[in-house]
Design a protein that fits this description.
Blueprint lengths: L3 E4 L3 H10 L5 E4 L16 E2 L6 H16 L5 E3 L2 E5 L4 H10 L3 E3 L1 H7 L10 E5 L3 E3 L1 H14 L3 E3 L6 E5 L2 E6 L2 E5 L1 E4 L5 H7 L8 E10 L12 E4 L5 E5 L2 E5 L4 E2 L9 H12 L11 E9 L6 E4 L6 E5 L5 H17 L7 H7 L7
Parallel strand pairs: 1-2, 1-13, 2-9, 5-15, 13-21
Antiparallel strand pairs: 3-8, 4-8, 5-7, 6-7, 10-11, 11-12, 14-17, 14-18, 14-19, 15-16, 16-17, 20-21
Helix pairs in contact: 1-5, 1-8, 2-8
Length: 359
């Protein structure tokens, strides 16, 4: 018997477990043989405080001090550039303003990213207030924090059944049965299914596939200092990665919880949209993959005690913003579980609470 069971070893689960371990004994169960295998291991790994809806931006901003300073900080300079064609100027202006990006002329944009095509890119805006996130180190640091506080991190422990009796949850896995009075559902794309297994009503989470391709550095350029590129209406995005160049069609394809893989046709269409704004064509893909970004019906994360079963705690629906929001989201979850005053504004707490879906 432990105090709290956390199911899910992505960034949501390990950060929640670390915060909760400050006041309780935590056991974290992850079905895969490594932490962060699914969505967390396939993240674009960028911190941009203005990226997301209002609730996500609130969590981003509250998370910034942790990203900047905890364990020596997790951020390194990257920058962000928005680009658009002439026909998309109105959308470009709205999106640039929402992300506090400064418009620049095409010559300035091409000085930062020389493969931009001046015949098709009519609008550009950028700022340097976007950073690469050391996502793997963040997961491992949170996991170490659980262990240092007397908790357990168990991989290869996929949940096969859940029952509640005697005031506790009893969770069967290939590594044995684990029990605790409180259960935290941080199962990502599988979170609604896990709730159903526990006899708890789902909240309507929908996994959305997003594909990614890794390309050689375009034209042999040194891409290490280039900003992340986002096309207007997020038609695609591109980002340096260890000397290579990542391009995503940025699709949101509703699907089911599974070990996702890239859709070749969607990837080809996205790469064609990207190529139309570049002078250097795509000649070779080194590899491709996909991840699942899981959203609640209102596209806001779901945090806190279930309305009908308060000992079942939701930590789900991060929707691709898990790393950006994890420091503040995990602290809020711990505050809601422990009954302590949240460190974020009441309106943000209300927007995120799991019991907003009751009735």
């Amino acid at each position: 018997m432990t105090d709290i069971l956390v199911i899910g070893g992505g960034i949501a689960g390990v950060s929640a477990g670390a915060r909760l371990a400050a006041h309780a004994q935590v056991t974290l169960l992850e079905s895969e043989t490594a932490l962060g295998y699914h969505a967390s291991g396939r993240s674009a790994a960028l911190f941009e405080a203005q990226y997301g809806n209002a609730a996500v931006v609130g969590l981003n901003k509250a998370s910034a001090p942790y990203h900047q300073t905890a364990n020596g900080g997790y951020l390194s300079p990257r920058g962000l550039m928005l680009v658009a064609g002439a026909a998309d100027r109105a959308d470009f202006e709205r999106e640039a303003a929402s992300m506090a990006l400064a418009p620049v002329d095409i010559e300035t944009a091409r000085a930062r990213v020389p493969i931009l095509n001046p015949d098709t890119v009519a609008c550009a805006a950028l700022h340097d207030a976007a950073w690469d996130l050391d996502t793997d180190r963040m997961i491992q640091d949170f996991a170490r924090e659980i262990r240092a506080r007397g908790g357990t991190v168990m991989t290869g422990a996929g949940v096969t059944s859940i029952r509640r009796s005697g005031g506790a949850w009893h969770v069967e896995t290939p590594r044995g049965e684990f029990s605790a009075p409180l259960l935290v559902n941080a199962a990502g794309a599988w979170a609604d299914g896990l709730a159903a297994m526990a006899g708890v009503a789902p909240v309507g989470l929908v996994p959305m596939r997003r594909s990614m391709a890794r390309l050689p550095a375009p034209g042999g350029h040194d891409v290490s200092g280039w900003p992340m590129l986002i096309a207007v209406r997020e038609a695609w995005y591109a980002k340096p990665d260890a000397g290579k160049w990542l391009v995503s069609p940025a699709e949101e394809h509703p699907t089911t919880a599974h070990d996702a893989y890239a859709d070749d046709m969607v990837l080809a269409e996205g790469l064609a949209r990207y190529e139309a704004m570049m002078t250097t064509p795509v000649t070779r893909l080194e590899t491709s993959w996909a991840g699942l970004r899981t959203f609640a019906p209102d596209r806001v994360p779901v945090l806190g005690r279930d309305a009908a079963q308060p000992d079942f705690i939701w930590c789900a629906g991060q929707g691709g913003y898990g790393f950006q929001t994890a420091p503040a989201a995990s602290q809020l979850l711990a505050d809601l579980v422990n009954g302590t005053d949240p460190q974020v504004e009441p309106a943000l707490v209300a927007a995120l609470r799991a019991d907003r879906f009751a009735a």
